[in-house]
Amino acid sequence: ARVEISRRVHDILRAHCVDDWQSEANYQHHNFAEHRWKHIKRCVQRFMHCRNVSPEAWLLCLKWVPDAMNHTSEESLDWRPPLEVLTGQTIDISILLMFLFWDVVCVSRHDDTQYRGQVGSKKSSEMRGRFVGFAWNVGHALTFKILADDTKKVICRSRVRLSKEGENNLKLDTEAGAVPQ
To answer: Which residue stretches of 2-155 are H helix?
Structure first.
């Protein structure tokens, strides 16, 4: 783009001692980062199709795929994860073993002050959601991003459990619209 090669940009790069390089127009194969983006795009498309992910969640999936790729080993890096090569520290991959993108999970409802555990209450102490990523900057190392089914907002929770298939939690399923009332 012309903005990237303007005199002002060159002055800023020179002031900060940053080297500048552009690939030739219409020759994207010169830029090796383009190969990685192509691989990420294919993974996102394949994963969204296989897991039947809602189209509105494409950006969340686009954030999750590189996180998973950065924690898995690469043959080109002598079977080491990219984050290990970058930092020199052994990477803990246990966070990847917990959930897959778009898994149905149950989390506690923290900010609902009306529920006090009454028997027969219409509200549950848990709410359903979908696992959509890792919250690296919130809480401890095992904090996850959850897309809540009822509010459609992304929340960060560390106490998350996988909703088992065939689990009879009609209250949560009805609130999520999965069971006709």
So the answer is: 7-15, 32-50, 58-71, 82-87
The kind and range of the H/E element at 37 are: helix 32-50
- The candidate with the shortest Cα–Cα distance to 107, out of 58, 176, 10, 38, is 176
Query: Which residue is it, tokens 């790069």?
Result: 13
C-alpha 90/C-alpha 69 separation (Å) is 15
Place of tokens 């897309």: 147
CA-based nearest residue to 47, from 66, 63, 61, 36: 61
Enter the pTM of the model.
0.73
Is residue 116 very low, low, confident or very high in pLDDT (cuts 50, 70, 90)? low
Token digits for 87?
């930092």
